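Memo to structure team: turn this sequence into structure tokens by end of day. - J.P.
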Amino acid sequence: MPDDARKPEVIETTVGNLAEAAAELARRGLDAQDRVKITIEPDELIPGRRACRAAVIAAGLSDDDIDRLIEEARTEAQPLLG
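Reply from structure team:
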């Protein structure tokens, strides 16, 4: 099958896991010089999340602290959901 007849494939990842995406591309037989297209899909929440994360870090909390606080809030909200 000619290269231009192949259907595009999607590998969804985060910026922090780009090495894993590169490993997956290599596993699929792509060479480091092969061209790929990266699409950045901005999320409506990203600006707000960045601002909140900066405030949380400035308060001295870590990502683990943030995860713990989110989980605690979920647990507290469960009875309210019915």
